[in-house]
Design goal:
Elements lengths: L5 E7 L4 E6 L4 E4 L4 H9 L3 H8 L6 E4 L1
Antiparallel strand pairs: 1-2, 2-3, 3-4
Helix pairs in contact: 1-2
């Protein structure tokens, strides 16, 4: 299901990093995110709500240029 907040996201299981691009065009990397959490986000009806509840402010974050 499309998100009104998240444009796209990609997960690297080797580094456990989640890259998220928002509809605003800003991109961030979230470190040490468990794969099961990313899978739950993929299955979530609302990606934005899931992200805000379980990922945002829970993992170290770096803005990607």
């Amino acid at each position: 299901m499309p998100s009104s907040v998240i444009q796209s996201f990609a997960y690297d299981p080797a580094s456990r990093s989640l890259a998220v691009e928002f509809v605003s065009g800003r991109r961030y990397r979230y470190d040490d995110v468990p794969g099961r959490l990313v899978e739950e986000m993929r299955q979530a009806r609302s990606k934005g709500k899931f992200f805000n509840r379980h990922i945002r402010d829970h993992f170290a974050t770096t803005e990607i240029d």
